[in-house]
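A.,

Following up on our hallway conversation. Structure tokens first:
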């Protein structure tokens, strides 16, 4: 581009001023001109301390909006020209300017969008351009102001609009922005509408408040996912997003992509219950009710206890076999006696009493905290309560991928006790999955050598060599299977 076009605004100002002065547009055509421009500086004075209390509120709002405008404009041009800005440096610069300018009764120093656009369009890119602009403004105030009194206001308006045309063209970016991110598009529209009808300062303040509101809402209703394993790897991804993802048998992996605090804990708990498919409080209450009825039948002799559970006595009527009344709202009932009866019950099989107990298809639950940036005391309490609710119905809970400060915060808030211990925390999801499968493989496994040794101690008979060799081979096979296990 020819250099003369980069300074076309300055040339327009000079030419338009000369024509307006020579033709005398004001008298002949009643055209609006700048007229008188005050020259010189006011004498510096000390701040009036008595006004501090009256202006504190307005000063605070002006400072916030002024800083937001300055940083916003700086980011626009930084993005356009490919450099970065330091918000703290901008804050210090505005503070120094206003302290110094306040002594000369100046207006609040801030960023002029139109003047910045004019300087950028004329080729100003460094701090030297700012210094030259300041010198030119000072000369205009002291000397040149008199020469620009004949400049038409329409010319000034045309220069400003011409330099802002790039920003006006951004209106055509709304459809693209809507397709990319609807929330960001709404923020843009709210800020634009507020700026047009309420002014730039109030409009930007409205935009900032609206954006903060969207952040709060997004943390209260965040993204969550159920994770599965990529076969033959230690990678876990969203089962709804990726294909050929396998959930570990009997294990649910729940990822919560938000801070766990008072505003999101209810959402956290509700979505966790939704993905596992049952309410642990309801399951506990139903099981307690069923155990109470089973205990009643055993006392009446209508059920017999065996090593593997209970058997119904067909010779007598089952008086406890009665319809189960469903409750519209589940509450914890810790007063139901359940410890008097020492008997194993298969809750997924048909029960000898007519109580509808929700089926449970998992034995372990993994909470992925990799995207939990912070947790407050309310979040700690709710997470602990949820863990205890699941574990008392036989579901082990593990927390993985956590940040160190999350663990420290939970420890400070009294998260751990005799039931909730630190060994439930694992560095990765895969570590927790491997541990769960290892525990399930060896949970009911009995060591044949120990059985033989126990038998030998009771009978005082030597252990047969052939049996010992067979048992050693069995243990070696088990050990190899354990070491070769990978999910």
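Then the amino acids I'd put at each of the 487 positions:
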């Amino acid at each position: 581009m020819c250099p003369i076009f980069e300074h076309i605004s300055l040339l327009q100002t000079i030419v338009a001023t000369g024509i307006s002065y020579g033709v005398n547009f004001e008298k002949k055509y009643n055209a609006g001109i700048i007229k008188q421009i005050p020259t010189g500086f006011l004498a510096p004075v000390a701040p009036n301390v008595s006004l501090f209390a009256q202006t504190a509120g307005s000063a605070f709002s002006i400072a916030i909006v002024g800083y937001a405008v300055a940083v916003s404009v700086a980011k626009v041009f930084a993005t356009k020209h490919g450099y970065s800005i330091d918000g703290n440096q901008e804050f210090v610069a505005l503070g120094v300017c206003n302290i110094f300018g306040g002594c000369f009764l100046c207006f609040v120093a801030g960023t002029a969008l139109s003047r910045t656009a004019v300087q950028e369009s004329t080729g100003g890119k460094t701090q030297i351009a700012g210094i030259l602009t300041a010198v030119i403004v000072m000369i205009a105030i002291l000397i040149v102001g008199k020469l620009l009194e004949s400049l038409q206001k329409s010319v000034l308006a045309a220069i400003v609009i011409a330099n802002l045309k790039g920003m006006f063209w951004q209106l055509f970016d709304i459809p693209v922005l809507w397709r990319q991110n609807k929330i960001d598009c709404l923020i843009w529209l709210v800020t634009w509408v507020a700026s047009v009808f309420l002014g730039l300062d109030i409009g930007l303040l409205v935009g900032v408040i609206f954006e903060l509101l969207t952040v709060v809402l997004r943390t209260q209703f965040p993204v969550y996912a159920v994770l599965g394993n990529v076969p033959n790897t230690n990678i876990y991804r969203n089962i709804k997003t990726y294909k050929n993802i396998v959930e570990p048998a009997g294990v649910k992996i729940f990822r919560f992509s938000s801070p766990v605090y008072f505003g999101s804990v209810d959402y956290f708990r509700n979505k966790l219950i939704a993905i596992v498919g049952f309410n642990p409080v309801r399951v506990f209450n139903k099981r307690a009710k069923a155990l109470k009825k089973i205990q009643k039948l055993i006392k009446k002799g209508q059920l017999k206890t065996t090593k593997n559970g209970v058997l119904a006595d067909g010779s007598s009527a089952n008086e406890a076999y009665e319809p189960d009344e469903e409750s519209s709202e589940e509450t914890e009932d810790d007063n139901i006696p359940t410890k008097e009866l020492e008997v194993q019950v298969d809750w997924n099989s048909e029960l000898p009493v007519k109580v509808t107990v929700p089926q449970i298809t998992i034995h372990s639950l993994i909470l992925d905290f990799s995207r939990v940036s912070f947790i407050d005391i309310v979040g700690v309490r709710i997470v602990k309560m949820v863990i205890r609710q699941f574990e008392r119905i036989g579901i082990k809970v593990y927390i993985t991928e956590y940040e160190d400060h999350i663990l420290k915060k939970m420890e400070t808030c009294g998260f751990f006790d005799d039931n909730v211990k630190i060994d439930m925390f694992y560095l990765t999801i895969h570590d927790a999955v491997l541990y769960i499968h290892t525990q399930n493989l060896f949970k009911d496994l009995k060591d044949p050598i120990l059985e033989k040794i126990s038998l030998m101690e009771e009978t005082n008979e030597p252990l047969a060599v052939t049996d010992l060799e067979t048992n050693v081979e069995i243990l070696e096979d088990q050990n190899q299977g354990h070491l070769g296990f990978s999910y």
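The longest strand covers residues 223-229. Curious whether your intuition agrees with the design.

B.
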